[in-house]
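A quick aside before the break. I want you to see a complete sequence-to-structure record at least once, exactly as it would be stored in a machine-readable document. Don't worry about memorizing anything.
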Amino acid sequence: MADPTRKPPTLKTIAEITGLSLSTVSLSLRDGSRLKKETRDKIARAAAEVGYVPNRAGVRLRTGQTNVLTLVLSPAKNTIDYTRQMIEGIGAHLSGTKYHLNVIPDLQGATPEESVRYVLQNRTSDGIILTHTSARDPRVQMLIDADFPFVSHGRTEFYAAHAFHDFHAERYVEMAVERLIDRGRTRLVLVAEDDATTNFTKITGGFHRALAQRGMTGEVATETGILISTDTARAFGQTLAQRGDPFDAIISNNELATLALMGGMADKGQVLGRDYDLICRQTTDILPTLYPQIDTVAEDLVATGRELARLLIDRVSGVPADELQTLHEPEPLWRSG
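That is the input. The structure line, written in tokens, reads:
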């Protein structure tokens, strides 16, 4: 049973345990991103051991801040492990800082703006991370108008600058096109269903430009519904395999859909590496585990989560938005001969 007469631990308690100065402990728990990770972790462990809990009501009254960041998580269909990796990366960067993470899922049927509007109206956090952003995302417009700190996972087409971190999709597809052509493939198709995100625009534009630079053309398979489920993706793979002039090279942007598509190709006798080559964006180990010879281009979603958290903390701290725009460079993993 807890001793009711025992005084709650304070910053001084943590300073005595760690041997660090009171100002260092205070800075770490207030804005630890400016300290070494070892120092932040040491203070965080000590705080956890003694059960130190900051008085959030008092903090909010003194500073107007909540010490909470919000991740507005849009549903990611046919995506493997996206949510876990993203939250792991954000959490890793927030560890030892004053910030805690609040996750708000964008529920089906709700308008995209509802989650953002709730945070703005109730001031439940100091900043927002948006995922799956579109070119003219209404959530981005709302946050720009409110002058509220945020960072988006994905670029937009707004004239007003805002913080973002995005996968360099154009470079990914350029790498894939170059690799496939160098392997002697001539009939290329990009399988990327229009999901209304800016990433779709970037990847399709990059595909056509990369082919044009090599004096070639290709097709983009954007038929509605082809990647909506593994069943439709498998059926689409069967359709590709039965074409009179089948493609000999496929670029895909989604691991789960790619597995189903390859299954459909195999159903009709098409063999990877013999009849066609395929390159997919990789965010897990599932593709090379099942197909050790497959070429992929990797995106580290845990690193993406870390970067989004770093950018948002800087934005909350007042760093100009146009200085907080970064791209995640793709990593080619060529495994075929």
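Two observations worth writing down. Residues 11-54 form one domain. The longest strand covers residues 68-73. We'll return to this after the break.
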